[in-house]
Amino acid sequence: MNEEQMKLSASAVNLWFGSKQVLKNVKVAFPEKKITALIGPSGCGKSTLLRCFNRMHELSADAKIEGQFLLGKEDLYAKSISATEVRRRIGMVFQQANPFPKSIYENINYGLAINDVPQAERAGIIENALKESYIWDEVRDDLQKPATRLSGGQQQRLCIARAVALRPEVILMDEPCSALDPLSTSKIEELIVKLKKDYTIVIVTHNMQQAQRIADKTVFMYLGEIIEEGDTADIFGKPEKDLTRNYVNGHFG
Ligand SMILES: Nc1ncnc2c1ncn2[C@@H]1O[C@H](COP(=O)(O)OP(=O)(O)OP(=O)(O)O)[C@@H](O)[C@H]1O
């Protein structure tokens, strides 16, 4: 992959939880305004790697991290950049939709407030984010209703709206469809593909069909290491390593 076009990258990453090493000499890069799928069997370290990029392990006392994490050329762990700024620039969407127990409006307003977006601009930003996330038509008359009353798929689109409202440069998605039915999943997939125009997206998925439907690039991990990466069609169609071939063909995992 051409270094120039890489938006997010990591090198020489080792991570331990207590004495257990979970990431081993990881080097990876994610191209700008593309979708990259991160695949691999349960427990291989996909979520752990994703969380490193927006400094989610800082709160975990038993996590020890080594390595370099860059957004463009900026060091994400530099003293000059706060975790709040990192999380504004690198949004995250989780496996279980996790709206705050507040109104639909307030779910998005909260992030704008803590990032000092002027009050007068917020209503417009909230409307745009909901439109951009294909949920506006379903909630426009219910903005003051509790977000927890939305369906699972709607909650996940609201969480995506919450992320895009802050105009991040990257959106990390950790199995965003795993709790959803096929119809909601296909709506989210359509949304992710649309968002690629403006954002660099990394998605962890166990769904091999999903990776092939939406991802330009695919990275395969196993036991804390990157085994193979490349164009999605190559990883699934003609992988170089037997381990990759066995995994994508469903022989383990
Ligand atoms: N906070 C933590 N403390 C201790 N161990 C952890 C912690 N978080 C994850 N682990 C361990 O690190 C390893 C990697 O977990 P991780 O969640 O990154 O894997 P994964 O590839 O995302 O798995 P899955 O596909 O099942 O979500 C696992 O062995 C897990 O038990």
Total number of helices:
10
Determine the structural class based on helices, strands and strand pairing: alpha/beta
Shape: globular
Provide the succession of SSEs.
EEEHEEHEHHHHEHEHEEHH
What is the CATH topology classification name?
Rossmann fold
Widest sheet: strand ordering: 6-7-8-3-9-10
Q: Please indicate the count of domains.
A: 1
What are the segments in which pLDDT stays under 50 over at least 5 consecutive residues?
Answer: none
DSSP, total strands: 10
Q: Could you tell me the radius of gyration in angstroms?
A: 18 Å
Name of the CATH first level: Alpha Beta
Q: Give me the CATH architecture, please.
A: 3-Layer(aba) Sandwich
What percent of residues are in strands? 25-35%
What's the mean pLDDT score? 94
The main sheet comes to: 6 strands, mixed
The CATH homologous superfamily is named: P-loop containing nucleotide triphosphate hydrolases
What level of helicity do the residues show? 25-40%
Roughly how many Å apart are the termini?
27 Å
What does this structure look like?
This protein has a single domain (6-249), classed as P-loop containing nucleotide triphosphate hydrolases (Rossmann fold, 3-Layer(aba) Sandwich). It contains 10 helices and 10 strands. A hairpin with a 2-residue loop joins β9 and β10. The protein starts with 5 loop residues before the first strand and ends in a 5-residue tail after the last helix. The strands form 2 sheets. A 6-stranded mixed beta sheet has the order 6-7-8-3-9-10, with helices on both faces. Strands 2-1-4-5 form a 4-stranded antiparallel beta sheet, covered by helices on one side. α3 crosses α4, α3 (104-114) packs parallel to α6 and α6 runs parallel beside α7. The chain is an alpha/beta fold and 253 residues long. 36% of the residues lie in helices and 26% in strands. It binds adenosine-5'-triphosphate. Adenosine-5'-triphosphate (ATP) is lined by residues 17, 22, 40, 42-48, 60. Adenosine-5'-triphosphate binds next to α1.
